[in-house]
């Protein structure tokens, strides 16, 4: 049994993420009378039988607790700060086979047996389960971006994933994934440019700043996210000018171009390579 502190039960629930099982609160030493008083006072609300929450608890977590499911796939990835391709308006949840989690139209439910067992208190899937479901739910390129973001944030390791009984889609991602890209957009570059057979270095440093990709010796590709404005934009322009003076050539593209206009971007890169802009010994 957990030792109880002197804090009110509502603060304990807040410390547990805003939602808690009644059984877990009893294990921490809180008596039924204390819970009932908190419910009467409004410092706690009852979600369903056996679950309580603070009034301003996360609506997603409240919904998961009500239905006996866990947030998973891209929904859980976003909560963990992991890169996800697009803002899917739906909510993805996992339900343990044999559970009573419903299937309303607003939810996408995954019933497969989880790789990592889900604790009864959990409302968000373990990261290994999240990535395994992402592998099945999203296209390879998008899933790879999510996997590499999780690896970059050190939420999981390649070694840990390799020891799990992964399905083929996840195994394919494991073979490709690298823990160095810090944004999913950069992950897209390797499979999209591999056919050029030119050395491609993701996330390298030039003149004191990190660049998204270096093709060959001198061709730099920079991908502007949705928030490259203001001081960030000014610094990007300054750095572009500095490395051009050093002999580098810069192609800077937007999020829109990367995600929805890739053929035009690929054409620019092909023509730059044809002109030898990626070569250190190019003659003007």
Automatic annotation (TrEMBL):
One Pfam family of this chain: DUF559
Every DUF559 domain range: 175-273
Superkingdom of the source species: Bacteria
InterPro entries xrefs: DUF559
Protein name per Swiss-Prot or TrEMBL: DUF559 domain-containing protein
């Amino acid at each position: 049994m957990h030792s109880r502190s002197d804090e009110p039960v509502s603060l304990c629930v807040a410390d547990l993420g805003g939602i808690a099982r009644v059984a877990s609160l009893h294990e921490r030493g809180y008596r039924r009378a204390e819970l009932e008083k908190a419910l009467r006072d409004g410092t706690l609300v009852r979600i369903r039988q056996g679950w309580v929450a603070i009034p301003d608890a996360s609506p997603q977590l409240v919904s998961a607790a009500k239905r006996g499911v866990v947030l998973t796939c891209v929904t859980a990835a976003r909560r963990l700060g992991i890169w996800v391709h697009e803002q899917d308006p739906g909510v993805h949840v996992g339900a343990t086979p044999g559970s009573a989690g419903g299937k309303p139209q607003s939810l996408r439910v995954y019933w497969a047996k989880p790789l990592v067992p889900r604790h009864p208190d959990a409302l968000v899937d373990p990261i290994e389960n999240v990535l395994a479901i992402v592998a099945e739910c999203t296209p390879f390129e998008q899933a790879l971006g999510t996997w590499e973001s999780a690896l970059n944030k050190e939420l999981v390791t390649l070694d840990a994933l390799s020891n799990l009984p992964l399905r083929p889609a996840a195994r394919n991602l494991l073979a490709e994934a690298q823990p160095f890209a810090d944004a999913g957009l950069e992950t897209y570059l390797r499979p999209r440019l591999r056919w050029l057979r030119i050395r491609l270095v993701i996330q390298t440093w030039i003149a004191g700043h990190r660049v998204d990709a270096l093709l060959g010796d001198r061709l730099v590709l920079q991908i502007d996210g949705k928030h490259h404005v203001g001081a960030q934009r000014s610094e990007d322009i300054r750095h572009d000018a500095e490395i051009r003076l050093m002999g580098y050539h810069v192609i800077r593209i937007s999020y829109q171009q990367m995600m929805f206009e890739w053929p035009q971007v690929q054409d620019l890169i092909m023509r730059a390579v044809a002109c030898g802009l990626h070569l250190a010994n190019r003659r003007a």
